Amino acid sequence: MTSGSAAGRWGTTEMRETSWGDRGEHDKHVQQSHRMVIFAAILVLMTLLILYGSNNTSEAVYAPFHMATNHALKTTDLKKWSGNDGYVPIHGNKNMTLRCHNCALVTSSSHVLGSGAGEEIDAAECVIRMNDAPTIGFDSDVGNRTTLRVVAHSSVFRVVRRPNEFLQRSDSNPVIIFWGPPNKIGKDAKGTLYRLIQRVSMTYSNLSCFSITPIKMRRFDSLFHRETGRDRQKSHSWLSTGWFTMVTAIEICDNIKVYGMVPPNYCGKKNASKKMPYHYYKPRGPDECLTYIQNESSRRGNHHRFITEKQVFARWAKQYNITFTHPKW
Ligand SMILES: *[C@@H]1O[C@H](CO)[C@@H](O)[C@H](O)[C@H]1NC(C)=O
Ligand SMILES: *[C@@H]1O[C@H](CO)[C@@H](O)[C@H](O)[C@H]1NC(C)=O
Ligand SMILES: *[C@@H]1O[C@H](CO)[C@@H](O)[C@H](O)[C@H]1NC(C)=O
Ligand SMILES: *[C@@H]1O[C@H](CO)[C@@H](O)[C@H](O)[C@H]1NC(C)=O
Ligand SMILES: *[C@@H]1O[C@H](CO)[C@@H](O)[C@H](O)[C@H]1NC(C)=O
Ligand SMILES: *[C@@H]1O[C@H](CO)[C@@H](O)[C@H](O)[C@H]1NC(C)=O
Known about the structure:
Blueprint: H1 27-53, E1 87-89, E2 100-106, H2 118-123, E3 126-130, H3 139-142, E4 148-152, H4 156-161, H5 163-168, E5 175-179, H6 182-185, H7 192-203, E6 208-212, H8 214-228, E7 237-238, H9 241-252, E8 253-259, H10 269-272, H11 288-297, E9 303-304, H12 306-320, E10 322-325
Parallel strand pairs: 2-3, 2-8, 3-4, 4-5, 5-6, 7-9, 8-10
Antiparallel strand pairs: 1-6
Helix pairs in contact: 9-12
The structure holds 2-acetamido-2-deoxy-beta-D-glucopyranose (6 copies).
């Protein structure tokens, strides 16, 4: 994984590919899953027909992940979802007590470029960023304050390599939350990654570094299951840093304004044909819609479900006063 992305290996499983249906051991379930397979096959066929029917220029077929429609999706009250026990300090005995009225959540998407939103972002009470997304050189579009940075284990090296960029140009007491498999970033981890995080945490005394506890990592999984009807591991899905960041933002912020996130239906044919880099700081990097669509429709191996995640965000937006700008939705 090269990009400063979400690429989490958390929960990689050795399970072989299976159908989406319930893998029931009992006969009645077998009958049921037959019906489901047929239903799914018809659905896929229809999707293909519709897509091909309206498709003159050849393009990757977009077979969406599909949230389970046969489940009654339960919505979780994220405000009460979890106490402070979800985060452990990397060093010392600080508690994760960050709370804000107004937050600006700045995505890493190239949709922020040209927005001129820098000053507006910096005027927010708290500014939230992800992974190694820089501010230097992009101030006018993304601002230059950082209150909270949510960092995937796979991005740790990139963040600590340039501490001036990520750690000092921040509010006076910035917070970093690291997420990842407990054996890599957990308290009991003994690896290089954890030692590196520890060293940074000790060196920069203004910085409050936390890692997400194993219990909370499992809660993120069950949240995905409840909100999409899909078991994360069985569906070979990886959660993205965007998912962790959105949930964390809802926990700590009363209002959230999101910069640069496209709506779930954005990557249709028309919009997808316009190339937009996945990361604003990598103009020659992969295309955003292509990355979303390929991940969403991949069945072999583990993949992100960026589009499904955004469908969930759209629901949360109504519940938690989340607004989206650049693009607006
Ligand atoms: C953190 O929270 C615990 C339990 O709520 C409390 O006992 C402890 O004093 C707090 N630590 C700091 C540094 O505030
Ligand atoms: C960035 O920070 C500097 C102060 O260091 C400030 O003068 C400037 O207005 C900021 N730029 C933007 C676009 O927010
Ligand atoms: C650390 O915090 C103190 C007090 O909050 C502040 O004066 C100082 O500028 C901060 N240092 C950095 C590097 O942010
Ligand atoms: C929702 O958030 C926006 C800004 O993000 C704010 O202007 C508005 O007052 C908030 N509404 C409520 C009901 O809190
Ligand atoms: C393009 O994106 C807009 C939202 O920004 C969406 O309403 C529209 O359906 C998309 N177009 C296609 C063809 O997917
Ligand atoms: C899935 O997304 C990641 C970025 O998180 C990207 O590196 C990877 O190439 C994508 N996979 C596919 C099949 O597009």
